[in-house]
Amino acid sequence: MTEEYKTSPYRRYRNDPEAGNSTRSYDEDDDEGSGPFNIVRTKRAPVDQLRRWRQAALVLNASRRFRYTLDLKKEEERKELIAKIRMHAQVIRAAVLFQAAGKGAAGKGLSVPGSAKLPSSPTRIGDFGISAEELVKGVAEKLKSNPEIGVSGDETDLIERKNAFASNTYPRKKGRSFWRFVWEACRDTTLIILMVAAAASLALGIKTEGIKEGWYDGGSIAIAVFIVIIFTAVSDYKQSLQFQNLNEEKQNIQMEVLRGGRRVKISIFDIVVGDVIPLKIGDQVPADGLVISGHSLAIDESSMTGESKIVHKDPTRAPFLMSGCKVADGYGSMLVTSVGINTEWGLLMASISEDNGEETPLQVRLNGVATFIGMVGLVVAVAVLIILVIRFFTGNTENPDGSVQFTAGRTSVGDAIDGFVQIFTVAVTIVVVAVPEGLPLAVTLTLAYSMRKMMADKALVRRLSACETMGSATTICSDKTGTLTLNQMTVVEAYACGEKIDPPDNKSLLSPRVISLLTESIAQNTTGSVFVPEGGGALEISGSPTEKAILQWGVNLGMDFGAIRSDSVIIHAFPFNSEKKRGGVALKLSTGNRVHWKGAAEIVLASCSSYIDANDNVVQMDEDKLSHFKKAIEDMATGSLRCVAIAYRMCEKETVPASDEELDSWQIPEEDLILLAIVGIKDPCRPGVREAVQLCTNAGVKVRMVTGDNLQTAKAIALECGILGSDADATEPNLIEGKTFRNLTETQRLEAADKISVMGRSSPNDKLLLVQALRKRGHVVAVTGDGTNDAPALHEADIGLAMGIQGTEVAKESSDIIILDDNFASVVKVVRWGRSVYANIQKFIQFQLTVNVAALIINVAAAVSSGNVPLNAVQLLWVNLIMDTLGALALATEPPTDHLMRRQPVGRREPLITNIMWRNLLIQALYQVIVLLILNFRGRSILNLEHDESGHAFRVRNTLIFNAFVFCQVFNEFNARKPDEINVWKGVTKNHLFMGIVALEVVLQVMIIFFLGKFASTVRLSWQLWLVSLAIAFISWPLAAVGKLIPVPERNFGDYFTWRSRKGGKGDTASMEGSA
């Protein structure tokens, strides 16, 4: 086995001359010393860092708060289990090898362990009389399949196979039931304390006032807590179902299978025993099976064995394929023998629980915000508790009628305890309101909503964090083919016999010999196929778009695909790869051996020493003819055509290795080739791609084209797409070749990286070097990729975007988001959604902090001054429901707007709470506090209630304060929709969920005031007081509009809360987590 196969495909090209000499020696994401909540990149974050922020967070309900984060304990257990299963497989493997080696040694009379060598070629042992090739045919025959055409594909046959051999699925653990979410919601510390307090209040109330009247105080709190629990559980359950559906979508890989001789695409779950599956580089082996045929077929078995060693497979010496492994190189076909739970991979997947939890940077930062606010709320709640208790037991707290609530020696123990329980309940409820438990979960809510909507926009999110990171992207390194172009290729120009063939499939301009050689090359040097329907009809051509275009050209020239394939045997193949940009095949013919090459025109042309002229003679390539062909390539490239050259040469029989081991490492001759043809393939730009690129430019996101195509082709497409403004921009370093960039020093690369708009003839390692340089320059980089060798760049980038149609499984597994339609416009939609996630969270923060600040100040001020709080426990729980669950649903599910794409990208270290948000929330909170405290202290005279009975006047005033406060939050939800725009109603009617939630809040509030007075301690209000409530709330709209005219300073308000300290000579900044 060659050195090439001894390492993983992700590292195989590290020492390739095209890989450059750079290794990443920096860690720009090092957040050591910057506070536990400042994790700007959770992708590949160390476990210690993830554990540190969890321990630093103030949490009331850990099971709910950390539900969608990575379960560190389960992850460790999962890794241990996988290691055990892999070790089990390795032990069996080692035992078999040891036994075979021992037999070999015994047969030769040797006693030295390990000195035996396994047979290198298929042998017939004993009386079995069967070779490896016959074994595959025999198994296929037993399975009623055919290695050439597969199973019939008849529905009845497929069902029978599934019944006999099982389906290609494995049992998955059921998702959590609704009642599990109810149980988790019940585990909130404050809610448990409130339930205990409610029970105590209920017992005391029934004892002192009887069951008819005494159950209201305790019962109302218990019912309010129950409603909060149900609302929370329903919201969380619906989120979990969304994630469950998305996870199933991720695993639904589409595979090509051969059924009835026709290549069809089906789901990996629909593969059955007996199916024949074509395999190519980057594919996942979908089931256990046997190799039918293979050319340089190399499998990465690291997913099963844990070793990054590449294993060469062929039908004779190593025919067994394991499900879950990846094709690292080459191509071939396999016969499926086991599926689903009957495979090693199925057993492995069924044994481990799927933990899809993963924290996002925003989620971590919001835990910091929640912790800071919670600490403040906790201090305030303790202060309120102490003040109210002191006032109560010193006789300074009065009833609404003016009587003292507690008099030492006169008040009964039961009344004293009841009074203390009520005070304690208010203090605990303040903690419920103050600790924004729903704030970090709002990220999950908006991500779940965004992921579902992004599916409709042809983007499948594999990593949650990528969804929000995309909003911070400053540059997108995009492929050309299929992303910026349609990937619908046709041969529109051709040069053969030393001249241009017009039209390209004009057979009269080509000699029979050239046509024969061309069609042989096209049919044999391909991973595509041509299917001829039995009953006639149009031919079905499959393969990559480039292969399909060339195959179609061959068919137009009269190629009989099946006949040519059967006329010769492939001795060895060099599969096309994006490093070498060419692929070759050696054929064994009746007349001798022939080698065919196909690839990038200028690279193949450089290896040609002759060509076939118009007289059908092989002529030496002189300088004039070489210049002629180079000029033809340049002209086609300038016309945005992809140029592919086809060449061949004869190969002496004695130069072809005789043994299989030597053949594996044989390099197919690639010099002294005879040029057959150069073709120009047209791949038109996608409609709307120019507008999409312009949208990115307006949004401050630079689009860079990184392509393996000719530099001139890349330049033409870039001009057409708007990546390059004009010919004047098409100069170095804006326009650069991969080889040139790779040969720069690291310092020069860093300087050039920022300026690059187009990189042509790039290898995957050039793309990796560019990503590293851009990230080191401080960019947040999104990269598109479809090939196996794109995996390192996709892994290295902040956001890896794999192509859903042309992308290999290796590329998809290394990516964060899969673009299902391979369209650049879908990439731009992902940017919009990423920005929307960030914007929605900021809206929710502004709304929630306004409620926090107002509710805390109102209750504290009232408690300190009068010993009574205007907002009681039940009322605060209702406000908490509006603020947490309903508020998050309304604001975290706002769809993205065009306004978002007119902003610059949000820096990952920029404050979460901007000065605009501070201004908005302080104006609203201050207004609510002033108005409601005036009502609290002067409400009786303002509302003309002096002549009313004092208890009734007290309840009317408090009901008005509660009603006005709730409606202020409802009206403020509209303000929070557009923090920096005056017109807050724009597009509101299109968001049906927002309108529905606002309507629900209004209806419930009306019901509370009219029908649930006993529970909420409210009374019915007159229509005049309803108008007063609505007028107070309505003023928040014009006030917000005027407030938005106030300019804000450049320095963030949160910076004033920042303190700095020195740590080991390195500046260590710890800041208020809400603004850091």
From TrEMBL:
Residues 1-39 are annotated as: Disordered. It comes from the Eukaryota. PANTHER family: CALCIUM-TRANSPORTING ATPASE, CATION TRANSPORTING ATPASE. Belongs to the cation transport ATPase (P-type) (TC 3.A.3) family. Type IIB subfamily. Catalyzes the hydrolysis of ATP coupled with the transport of calcium. The chain crosses the membrane at residues 181-206, 218-237, 369-393, 420-449, 844-864, 916-935, 993-1013, 1025-1046. It is an enzyme of class 7 (translocase). It catalyses: Ca(2+)(in) + ATP + H2O = Ca(2+)(out) + ADP + phosphate + H(+). It is found in: Endomembrane system; Membrane. This is Calcium-transporting ATPase. Keywords: ATP-binding, Calcium, Calcium transport, Calmodulin-binding, Ion transport, Magnesium, Membrane, Metal-binding, Nucleotide-binding, Translocase, Transmembrane, Transmembrane helix, Transport. The keyword Lyase does not apply. The keyword Signal does not apply. NCBIfam families: ATPase-IIB_Ca (TIGR01517), ATPase_P-type (TIGR01494). Its EC number is 7.2.2.10. Residues 132-206 form the Cation-transporting P-type ATPase N-terminal domain. Pfam families: CaATP_NAI, Cation_ATPase, Cation_ATPase_C, Cation_ATPase_N, E1-E2_ATPase. It is a multi-pass membrane protein. It comes from Rehmannia glutinosa (Chinese foxglove). SMART domains: Cation_ATPase_N. CDD domains: P-type_ATPase_Ca_PMCA-like.
